């Protein structure tokens, strides 16, 4: 939804995805997955949007928040494992995470979350709420003259995006078996922005296409030529900016016209 709204060029994913793990009790963990990212986004977004911070300034603030969180979690005295982070995720609901059936279940749960997130995004985008978001994006001043306060709409979609990122992080951790502060690196947010740029900004399916393309290429490069991956990633972003300003999804939209 943040992508659809184009609230900022960087997603809240890195910082709020890093907030989604770290306890043995399943019910309590699921509550934290929703409440911690949602609460942080709600507090930060309230003060940011109340101060009318947007555009590049909002991007800088979100990156600063992410970087500050990463440095905090790197400190050993915080109790979050320092540089090593949390490890030893061996079971989930009493099932070994390395078992084939468990891994299949986690994959299906991830796929289900993606489908539900897309369905929710499409439903909201086609509703009156979605039309107001489009108005906030394209003509915010006119919307205010019509009697709408854009701050509430910005805050809602920002908080919802953070909750989705927390859920994604909760599914990510048991599949890789570790979570450390490096996952909150601003580099991850930049990579997510490249997903959006490649797939197509202002759409919901575009970032999915971009994520699959970039991560598939990353898996290939890190095996064959790992030292050149960051260079190739930068070339992707530059090429998309110059030759595909609307991303891959923009090619199909032009074809429709």
What does this structure look like?
- With 257 residues, the protein is an all-alpha fold.
- Helix content is 70%, strand content 2%.
- It contains 12 helices and 2 strands.
- A two-stranded antiparallel ribbon has the order 1-2.
- A hairpin with a 2-residue loop joins strand 1 and strand 2.
- Helix 9 packs parallel to helix 12 (247-256).
- The radius of gyration is 19 Å and the shape is globular.
Task: Please give the number of β-strands.
Answer: 2
* Rg (C-alpha, Å): 19 Å
Q: First CA to last CA: what distance?
A: 25 Å
Sheet of most strands: 2 strands, antiparallel
Strand content: under 5%
* Tally of alpha and pi helices: 12
Helical fraction equals: over 70%
Widest beta sheet: strand line-up: 1-2
Topology:
Blueprint: H1 2-5, H2 13-17, H3 26-50, H4 56-74, E1 91-92, E2 95-96, H5 100-125, H6 128-138, H7 140-145, H8 150-176, H9 186-199, H10 206-224, H11 229-243, H12 247-256
Antiparallel strand pairs: 1-2
Helix pairs in contact: 3-8, 5-8, 9-10, 9-11, 9-12
Summed up, what is this model?
With 257 residues, this protein is an all-alpha fold. 70% of the residues lie in helices and 2% in strands.
Relevant terms:
257 residues; mainly alpha; two-stranded antiparallel sheet; 12 helices; globular; disordered N terminus
């Amino acid at each position: 939804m943040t992508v659809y709204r184009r609230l900022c060029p960087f997603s809240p994913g890195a910082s709020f995805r890093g907030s989604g793990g770290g306890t043995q009790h399943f019910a309590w963990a699921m509550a934290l997955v929703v409440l911690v990212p949602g609460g942080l986004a709600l507090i930060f977004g309230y003060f940011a949007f109340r101060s009318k911070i947007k555009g590049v300034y909002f991007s800088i603030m979100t990156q600063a928040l992410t970087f500050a969180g990463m440095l905090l979690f790197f400190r050993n005295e915080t109790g979050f494992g320092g540089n090593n982070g949390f490890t030893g995720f061996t079971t989930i609901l009493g099932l070994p995470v390395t078992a084939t059936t468990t891994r299949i279940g986690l994959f299906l749960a991830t796929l289900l979350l993606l489908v539900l997130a897309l369905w929710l995004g499409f439903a909201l985008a086609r509703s009156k709420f979605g039309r107001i978001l489009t108005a906030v994006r394209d003509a915010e001043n006119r919307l205010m003259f019509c009697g709408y306060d854009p701050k509430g709409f910005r805050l809602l979609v920002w908080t919802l995006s953070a909750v989705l990122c927390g859920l994604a992080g909760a599914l990510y951790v048991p599949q890789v078996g570790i979570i450390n502060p490096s996952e909150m690196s601003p580099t991850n947010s930049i990579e997510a922005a490249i997903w959006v740029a490649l797939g197509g900004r202002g759409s919901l399916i575009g970032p999915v296409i971009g994520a699959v393309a970039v991560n598939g290429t990353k898996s290939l490069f890190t095996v064959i030529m790992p030292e050149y991956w960051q260079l190739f990633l930068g070339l992707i972003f530059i090429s998309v900016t110059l030759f595909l300003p609307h991303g891959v999804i923009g090619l199909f939209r032009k074809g429709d016209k």
